[in-house]
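note to self: dont lose this again. the chain is below, predicted strucutre after it. 140 aa total, dont forget to put it in the shared folder this time
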Amino acid sequence: MSSCREARGSSGPWPASCASATSCASCRSRRRCSSVAARLKRDDEVLVIAGRDRGKRGKVQRVLVDKGSVLVEGVNMVKRHVKAGQGARQAGIIDKEMPIGMSKVMPVCPSCDKPTRVAFRTLDDGTKARVCKHCEGMLS
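---
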């Protein structure tokens, strides 16, 4: 199976050969690359580098791999009008956090306190670890 078109019938809508790429030119699938999601994890501190919230820092609450976005507390706030629901929920306007693209945030290194790109190093015991590009410190 050299091409994605040959593999399409056996493995569903996205063939196994497309799984590692951000998009496959031969079958035009738009499956996200899992390695992009691996650089950000829940509870990481991130800095927003683009958009209207540029310069804000926050903690990652959730990583949405299939959408290529993250939910960061206190960032990308929008107002939503909600109806009164069953029970204690009141009607009104609430501020809600919305997901922001992964490419718009950079993780902040806890040891040097700088926004950094993430490198991956294999440790002596064979596990893969996320490392700061500036100070070579471990990212959680």
